[in-house]
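Hi everyone,

Forwarding the result from last night's run.
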Amino acid sequence: ALAKASARTEDLIAFQGLPGAYSDLACRAALPKMRTLPCAAFEDVFAAVRGGQAHLAMIPIENSVAGRVADIHHLMPTSKLHIIAEWFLPIRNQLMAPKGASLKTIKSVESHVMALGQCRRIIRELKLKPRVAADTAGSAREVAESKDITREAIASRLAAEIYGLDILKENVEDETN
C-alpha cells in the first residue's frame, strides 16, 4: 500500500529494508520515476513521510502465502498517514551466492523467515541449513561481504545485482502465486 502525507516536492519514496529488498522492488515497479529511500524500521518509514524526507511510503500489508504483516496493522492507525493506492508484487525468490560458489559448495542459506518459509522445498532438496536473518536484502549483503562459497541467500534478483552475487537457481519459491 502507498501512504501519503501532505504534498511534498521531493521525489523520494520510503520503504523498510536495505536496497534490493522486495519493498524496494515494489517502489521501483510502481513508481519508476521516484528515487527510493531505505529505512531501518517501519516506524522510520512513517517518520520519513511525516518529517518531509520522503513524499510517499511503500509498506507491505499482506503476503498471500505467509499472511498479513502484523506490525503495519498496529502502526498504521497512529501514523497520521493514509493509504492512497495499492501495488501487487509477485515474489520471485532467487538462490544466490558469492562468485565461485555452486550448488555443490553451499551448505547454508540465509534470509528473512518468510522467504525461508516460502522456499522450503529447495532448502530440503539441497539439504541446506536455514539461518533466519532480519531481511532478504540484508542477508544478500552479508553473504556477499563474507565471500564464503558455503553460504547463500534467498532474496530478489535486484539484491543479487546490487550486492554482486551469482544466482545459482532462479524462482525457488514453493508457490508461484
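The first strand starts at residue 2 and ends at 4.

Cheers,
N.
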